[in-house]
Hints:
This protein is α+β, with helices and mostly antiparallel strands. Helix content is 33%, strand content 24%. It has helices at residues 3-20, 60-70, 82-86, 154-167, 196-204, 214-227, 252-266, 281-290, 301-314, 420-437, 448-451, 464-478, 481-495; strands at 24-28, 50-54, 102-109, 115-123, 136-143, 173-179, 183-191, 234-241, 269-274, 294-297, 320-329, 334-340, 360-362, 367-376, 383-392, 399-407. The strands form three sheets. The chain has a six-stranded mixed beta sheet, with helices on both faces. Helix 7 links the parallel strand 8 and strand 9 (269-274). The model is unreliable at 1-46 and 439-454 (pLDDT under 50).
Amino acid sequence: MVRNRTRRLRGALLALTAAGGLLLSGCGAGGSDDTSHAQDSDVAPSPDLRSTFALDVDTASYGYARRTLAEGRLPDPSTVRPEEFVNSFRQDYERPDGNGFSVTVDGARTGDENWSLVRVGLATKAADRGGDRPPAALTFVIDISGSMAEPGRLDLARHSLGVMTDRLRDDDSVAIVTFSDEAETVLPMTRLAGHRGEIHDAIDTLEPTDSTNLGAGVETGYETAVEGLREGATNRVVLVSDALANTGDTDADTILERVATERREHGITLFGVGVGSDYGDALMERLADKGDGHTEYVSDEDDAAEVFCDRLPQNVELTARDAKAQVTFDPQTVREFRLIGYDNRAVADEDFRDDRVDGGEVGPGHTVTALYAVRTAAGADGHLATATVRWLDPETRAPHEESGALEAGSLHGSVSDAPARFQVTAVAAYFADALRSGDSHSRDSHSRDSRESRHSRLPGAPALGELAKRAARLAHTTEDDAVRDLADAVERADRYGA
């Protein structure tokens, strides 16, 4: 949470923080007497209408929620990160030609008095499927502990790694480290050219054994990556695990410091791949954040094929380092806002242009979406917000910025009138909101009880049954299997009483 924003909200949100975290982090401003939708009346007015955060392209939280719902149970609210739900779906943003980002800002009124949803969309250049990219040096750190014997864990990883090995280029390199109670380098950094059979043999030997010494695996993995470091290549550690550390160094901060040190000294990024019905989601996410990478979750062969065989080979390069976004709302038209998610990615507003402050690393083919709940002044007209993204060139580390703006007159009259991809974004955010609330059917978002519960509900939030219908309609409109899976997940959550 940004420091000045935290001071402003401390009194109003103390009960919420103690209860276990917020879905909506933001701030209030202005002196309007319009106090609709879950706004505490004792929040002091403030001129601060800025929101700053490090970019994040993780999607593991949504994948794990889908897996949990498919098994007939609701996900733990603490594992639900709304930005990862939102970022799990294809967007329609214009893409830039070179490194960096395009910026798209749009919005729609919710019908909940003066509240709107505002979408800030950032997109990198399209992934080059023709293979015109730097070579990759990938160190796979594979969990072979006893828990990985469960179907859909090590067997899935082994199959996927084998297929991926056949798809990597001859000038790419692969190393394999395994860990259970101890860690071992099974294969040092090895070029694909002339050695694919050797790499396949190493993959085929992977079998589950004992307990999970995740700390040893991470340390040995980075040591192996440093030993095999290739200048001019994308050097990355790929951690495949259920992240259930139970042996050796299980202290997250110690493990994370090792990752952070190697990141700073050698520029090695981390890609976390989560597996298993029991999954250490929080630890994997923190590791990836410290390792300037991101996380995905795979539950079946289709997920694994997409992650290992499509996304990883195509996106081994980076197009932006230490990327941050800052959204500035106009005090003449905006009374308050809340950023949906990004709870642990907040950056102090004054650090936006301090390039020593860590941001997010993003590769080609990615989109990053930030959704805001925004309450405008009654009859507001004119400028609403300006969104700026700042990043460092991945090679020269020269800073660059790009901006986009939104006018009140450009807001769509309702969410249902907005483009289909905007509607998908809204459904994903409302779904995460319901899963984190724990009481989606009965809570009155205008009541004092709502303000004192886990978090304030999103404006215009429908019941899950209606949300499932919206998702089903959007699946038909977009002809997108991912949206169809979303509709199925929402329907299951409604059936299980989320």
